[in-house]
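User: hey, got a sec? need Pirin family protein folded
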Amino acid sequence: MSNLETSASILTCKEPGEVESVAVEVLTPREVPLGGLRAMPVRRTLPQRQRSLIGAWCFADHYGPDDVAETGGMTVAPHPHTGLQTVSWLFAGEIEHRDSVGSHAMVRPGELNLMTAGRGIAHSEVSTANTTVLHGMQLWVALPEEARNTEPKFEHYVPTSRAVDGGRISVFIGALAGERSTVEMFSPMLGAEVCIDAGATLTFDVDTTFEHGAIVDLGVVELCGTTLSRAELGFVPVGRSSLVLHNPGDEQVRLLLLGGEPLGEQILMWWNFVGRSNDEIATYRAQWQDEVGAHDSGQTSSATRFGVVDGYVGNWIPAPTLPATPLKPRG
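Assistant: Yep! Here you go:
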């Protein structure tokens, strides 16, 4: 998924390490128009000024249930990424993915599409014609210094949906409650869908070196005693050996549970790029613009960082204008 805000701001994810005095920090998302025929709205929980990272998780968009007949669904033309992994997870609908390493795959409910951008990749995402309701989450993972220029790749993974006492879990990244994903990650992480039955409580043993976050998709959830409403994210700092999730309602609730060791690095996020310096981001932008210009004119680009998304018909997304002043880390 692309960050389609026309006035893309610079966000520097500061090194975690300050443990809040409260057990759970509640983050409320802001609404952002994603694009499409009539601008499908998404709820963006990460990054925020008060918290940019949960482990290496650096971006979270939550969308739907979206009536495609009203919004036009998702139509995201080819756009670039560097220095990150995209994690696509659906609750309803279907999205067609194409990228510049030759991948052509569908994103379907309960199935993970994981794209590693590394040194650079381009991709498109379009909801399919038979999709009437679109509902899911798009997340980004920042790659650590030693892996951020790795070769781009794509993985599709179908985790086991396993019943537990009081609910059900699907672990798509890392390990939880005896379930383990096989996809390749570049820092210790966790990603899982958790469903909790009416009135039930789930307790998970977790790594004490991990930060954790829970994004509520349906219902109201109590995370370690703190109430989270739909679309809110609850952050738990390092140090906990278990997480307690309680459903106080009379219907099943659903959330995504994220976690990971603090990245321990400062990263620069601008538009769809993750880098380390202003000059690096400016170089990524210039190379992408060169490739967009060559594509629009039917010529071959002199820059080949991002490549061509075969099978997509239409214009690519140009990068927004960089700020006039140099991009600087915050914090």
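Quick note: The longest strand covers residues 57-67. Let me know if you need anything else on Pirin family protein.
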